[in-house]
Amino acid sequence: MTFADLLPKDVSLTIATALCAVAFVSGTARGFSGFGSALIFMPLASSIAAPRLVAALLLVIDFVAAAPLLPDAWRKADRKATAVIVLGALIGVPVGTYFLSVLEPVTTRWIISCFVAALLLLLLSGWRYRGKDHAWLSVGIGGLSGFCSGLAQTGGPPIVGYWLGRPIAPIVARANILLFFGASDFFSMVSYAATGLISRESLVLSLIVGPVYAIGVAFGASLFGRASEKVFRGICYALIAMAVIFGLPALDGVLR
């Protein structure tokens, strides 16, 4: 049996290698800066393989990678405040998953590219919510993040921008973010499984791509402190922008 025999149907050795390369780059970004993996991975990976397959692949990889961080996050988080935002995700994730499951792949790719471009602009703006707490606002932000996660696993920027702008200790903000995405990933796993998006193909591919992603995360973490975070974040922003451009369906005839 060769390595190619282990690959899912319709995934060639070339596609698997390309997905591993994208996973390494996106994992490196996450390992150093703590963000950007999905924003880099999804536009590029969905131009290589079916958006439904790569969204499920990224979900499985992230779910496994984040699980060990949840017990500590549970102890340090403001669980009451996080629960309100999680309520929004409970609504938003199934809606995003539904659209992922019914839309044509090219349509999904256009939506992913537009979403990621908008989220990149949000990151570049440095937006932080510094207003008062409102339950309806928390539910709305959780719903938006959940929708983006259900559709393309790109729900990070709204939640990060919200929690980092609150007058709370950074350690609590980080714990809240981790706890929220633990719940959001769980909702996504259930929604993806119910709609058939978690398939044998996505699980097999995650076993191949997952270790490469983990190596990228470890490599990125090892770079922390060797270069200024400002410089590396700038590189991450540039990679996200390139991912949006190169992942555009309009360039299929030129780049692919």
From TrEMBL:
The keyword Aminoacyl-tRNA synthetase does not apply. Keywords: Cell membrane, Membrane, Transmembrane, Transmembrane helix, Transport. It is a multi-pass membrane protein. InterPro entries: TM_pro_TauE-like, TSUP. Its main location: membrane. Coiled coil: none annotated. The chain crosses the membrane at residues 15-41, 53-70, 82-103, 110-129, 135-165, 177-198, 204-224, 231-251. GO terms for cellular component: plasma membrane. It is found in: Cell membrane. Belongs to the 4-toluene sulfonate uptake permease (TSUP) (TC 2.A.102) family. This is Probable membrane transporter protein.
